[in-house]
Design brief:
Layout lengths: L3 H9 L56 E7 L2 E6 L8 E8 L5 E9 L8 E9 L9 E5 L5 E3 L3 E3 L2 E9 H9 L2 E6 L9 E6 L3 H31 L1
Antiparallel strand pairs: 1-2, 2-3, 3-4, 4-5, 5-9, 6-7, 6-10, 8-9, 10-11
């Protein structure tokens, strides 16, 4: 069995930063002495699929339209990230990138308040995204300070990773406001007998969550005003 440090490195690289480019190395037969150079128009075409994974880049200034995300402010370990909307009052969430002990990016968590009047014990939600080669049957566990942890199932996997949709009660949210830190842990598929523990910093959480809630309240008010204006226009 490979050392744990090697497994963690492989596990962290699942995010795709080291995907090899297919078709870069090719071999050709050595030309004979009387070989002539064919016109460019007669050059052999690349095999289907070669070059499909090459990036064409992103035009500068792109990603600023409706639906794109951006960072508004930082609150120590957290970032307030928002999504551009037509009203200009953009909905936001509190975001943190989770790294292992060697500094490799492994997972991410985004926390957001639920709309007023939402039924059920949850007052806030969170999306936790982990690498694709996570042992899904073990779920993802979250513990704050020395309290008892909770394990949550994964809802879906996409090209970016596997996502657990978490509901937070008022008591749990209050614990995060008062807490010093937490642990988010997952089990690698390649090492089912081991657990990867990622430090969740709660520095700046209270200020960041308050700012996020204030901006979301403005976004909700703007959306309600837009709906009321549209309804009034339809009656005319």
């Amino acid at each position: 069995m490979a050392p744990l440090t090697t497994k963690l490195t492989v596990f962290a690289l699942i995010l795709g930063v080291c995907t090899p480019i297919a078709g870069m190395a090719q071999t050709t037969d050595a030309p004979t002495a009387d070989t002539t150079v064919a016109p460019a128009t007669d050059a052999p075409k690349p095999a289907p699929g070669v070059g499909d994974d090459l990036s064409l880049g992103v035009t500068e200034g792109a990603g600023t339209g409706i639906g794109s995300s951006y960072t508004v402010a930082s609150f120590e370990a957290w970032e307030q990230r928002c999504i551009r909307s037509e009203s200009g009052a953009d909905p936001c969430q509190l975001y943190q990138l989770l790294k292992d002990e060697t500094g490799n990016s492994v997972a991410e968590i985004a926390i957001f308040g639920l709309p007023a009047g939402t039924k059920g014990p949850a007052v806030a939600g969170a999306n936790i995204v982990v690498p694709l080669e996570t042992l899904l049957t073990e779920g993802v566990s979250v513990r704050v300070d020395e309290g008892k942890g909770k394990t949550y199932p994964f809802s879906v996997c996409s090209g970016q990773g596997c996502i657990a949709r978490v509901g937070l009660t008022a008591e749990e949210l209050d614990g995060m406001r008062k807490g010093a830190g937490g642990i988010v842990s997952i089990v690698p598929f390649i090492a089912p007998d081991q657990r990867v523990e990622l430090t969740l910093s709660l520095k700046g959480f209270t200020a960041g969550y308050t700012a996020t809630e204030e901006m979301n309240a403005k976004a909700d008010a703007a959306a309600a005003a837009a709906d009321a204006a549209a309804a009034a226009a339809n009656k005319e």
